[in-house]
Design a protein that fits this description.
Elements (H helix, E strand, L loop, with lengths): L9 H12 L18 H17 L2 E3 L2 E3 L3 H12 L5 E4 L5 E4 L8 H17 L8 H5 L3
């Protein structure tokens, strides 16, 4: 049984503490307390932007201008967001492998900065982002 408590006031804190106190001790349990992560809706907000990059821009790959997938743009832009601080490793057959950053590691407070970064890069490169009203609400 997995229970998640978003603790943001004394009442929710009380219920979380109560749930821990009421645990049966017949098997080991794990309790983790961490800052709230982004929502699924927040995660979905990046894909229209990444897919717009994919549809509208070519990028040099292995010396040739080519289209990248949304997922490939996510890798490229995440590395840029982190000031290109990713590591490069030699591949098993001698090629190069970029060991990048993962957006799933971003906490909620960093997520809005990430979306602002994506929109800023899109504006700099004239990438047109389709934004619905529900997506616009995710930036507020």
């Amino acid at each position: 049984m997995k229970r998640i408590f978003n603790i943001d006031d004394e009442r929710s804190q009380f219920h979380a503490v109560r749930a821990v106190q009421d645990l049966a001790l017949d098997k080991p349990m794990q309790v983790t307390i961490e800052p709230e992560t982004r929502t699924t809706a927040n995660n979905r907000a990046q894909w229209p932007i990444l897919n717009a990059f994919s549809e509208q821009l070519l990028w040099p790959v292995n010396g040739a201008m080519t289209k990248l997938t949304g997922e490939e743009w996510k890798h490229l832009l995440t590395s840029a967001y982190r000031q290109e601080a990713a590591r490069v490793a030699q591949g098993l057959d001698g090629g190069m492998v970029l060991i990048g950053h993962r957006t799933r590691e971003f906490k909620k407070n960093e997520w809005s900065d990430w979306l602002e970064f994506l929109n800023s890069v899109a504006a700099d490169r004239d990438v047109k982002i389709p934004v619905s009203k529900s997506q616009a609400a995710l930036y507020e």
